[in-house]
Amino acid sequence: MMKNSNQLILILDKVDSFDKTKIIANCFDYFLLMQISFDEFCELSHIVNQSFITDLKALSESYKELNNDIRKRLVGSGATEYKLDKTYDENTPFDIVINVSKQGRRLFFIMNKTYEKNLENENEEFIKELMNKLTVY
Question: What are the backbone dihedrals phi and psi of residue 95, each rounded to the nearest 5 degrees, phi first?
Fold first, then answer.
């Protein structure tokens, strides 16, 4: 626990905005409720500390509707990531897009205090997918 306390102090020492402390506090609440691990808490805190507060506010409003400039800035924090587009065009062999990462989506749900509901939906989808696979065999 002492290691976690020291890590928390280091995380909070890096914060450059009071609004970011609120986001980190929300993440810490989910850690205390054992909804996320301490490592996940540290990863989310890194995203918060490495991002502009305006970009985090935009992310909290809708991770699906982020403009490209915000998506580019969030790549360095880990909230977004480069992916190859799955669509294939004969003239362009591939297209690179910037998607919100798993941790970016997790942060979105935590900032909106809907993380538990999202977990339930993910579990339901996983169970449906598993049941579909089992019926095939």
Answer: -130, 140
